[in-house]
Write a structure and sequence with these properties.
single chain; 2 strands; 14 helices; mainly alpha
Length: 363
């Protein structure tokens, strides 16, 4: 039997070229992988939570949507975000700092008392305060590296020492639990402009802390994602022993991260001082937990090696919206801590899920 004449069987219709792979085909095929990569982003949960919190308060409180309210929310978020940035980097590196809250007060007290007792120039106190805050950060990192004790124990000891020193030294020097006013000293106006000024445009008031926060956020994100030191942070947080085996300076990396926390505490401490002129020595206790919660909500794992600086900013923004939204909605503020605890638990569960998806990788 002879074979059928004509061309071999082919597509029923259309030119053969219409069945060749196209860019659109690849995009369609890549959508599941792109979605998995999106789900693996550590800040995804914080972004969803921030959107949900915004919608809740936008619906519950009409003043929440006003331009002036936005400035208030940004200010509340920035006072947390300034510390959440270095704290998130430290947590990605696998460590904690329980002294971060009282260190802010220490920085403010040092600047005020040095300016008042030893000189009439506030800039001298500001510089000495920076040195003191960095010294505390260096001490935490050095002690951690030398003793190999858990950072929880090291920084808990620092927390207790600073809490006692803040109160004891302030009462010894000033005779009260607060510092003396320094607003009449030389340099106060310029220091206030740098740390506590504000700009109002179209009803929106933006305080200096917002600019500090955004600047630290940009620098922190660049360091984490675009530098070799950022790779070191992930490495020491993921497995310090393995990182040390391949030549990563583990102790030095962690010390630098603690120095970053000291710098953030100095910035926020100067803002408190030059905003209110005096400082109460008992302030700051408990704020370290808020900074840690903001970082966890933003995607940082308690175990280290995973997280996002941008996520910590979203965590701080959630705090800002919640703290002010509750007021605008005229809800009972006693429930604020309950809200924070719930957000922490939900964020921890979501972050663990996201990390598992990231470890499996796009398929």
């Amino acid at each position: 039997m002879s074979s059928p004449s004509g061309p071999p069987p082919g597509p029923a219709s259309g030119p053969p070229s219409s069945f060749s792979p196209s860019a659109a085909d690849f995009l369609v095929q890549d959508r599941p992988a792109a979605l998995r990569r999106l789900l693996a982003r550590p800040e995804l949960g914080a972004l969803i939570a921030a959107g949900a919190v915004f919608l809740v308060f936008a619906a519950a409180a009409e003043p929440f949507l006003r331009v002036a309210s936005l400035g208030t929310v940004l200010y509340a978020a920035s006072t947390i975000g300034i510390m959440a940035v270095p704290v998130s980097l430290l947590m990605i590196g696998g460590e904690f700092d329980l002294s971060a809250g009282v260190l802010v007060t220490t920085a403010a007290l040092t600047s005020s008392m040095v300016s008042y007792q030893f000189t009439a120039v506030t800039w001298v106190g500001v510089v000495v305060s920076l040195a003191a805050a960095l010294a505390v950060g260096w001490f935490n990192g050095w002690m951690l590296g030398r003793t190999r004790l858990p950072s929880f124990i090291v920084t808990l000891g620092t927390f207790l020492m600073l809490t006692g020193a803040n109160l004891g030294v302030t009462k010894l020097v000033s005779g009260t639990v607060s510092t003396k006013p320094i607003s009449d000293m030389q340099g106060f106006a310029s220091c206030r402009w740098l740390f506590a000024s504000e700009v109002t445009v179209g009803g929106l008031t933006v305080k200096a802390t917002v600019w500090w926060w955004l600047g630290m956020l940009a620098v922190g994100s660049w360091v984490l994602l675009r530098t070799r030191f950022g790779n070191w942070i992930f490495a020491v947080g993921g497995d310090a022993a393995a990182a040390r085996a391949v030549g990563v300076p583990v102790a030095r990396t962690k010390t630098v991260l603690y120095l970053g926390v000291g710098f953030g505490a100095w910035v926020l401490g100067q803002h408190l001082l030059f905003s209110f002129d005096t400082v109460q020595s008992g302030e700051g206790v408990g704020n370290e937990l808020i900074y840690i919660v903001a970082a966890v909500i933003g995607g940082c794992l308690i175990t280290g090696g995973y997280g996002s600086v941008a996520g910590s900013a979203l965590g701080a923004l959630i705090f800002g919206m919640a703290s002010k939204g509750i007021v605008y909605a005229q809800w009972n503020p006693d429930w604020f801590k309950f809200f924070l605890g719930a957000m922490l638990l939900l964020a921890a569960l979501l972050n663990a899920f996201v990390k598992r998806r990231a470890e499996r990788g796009p398929r």
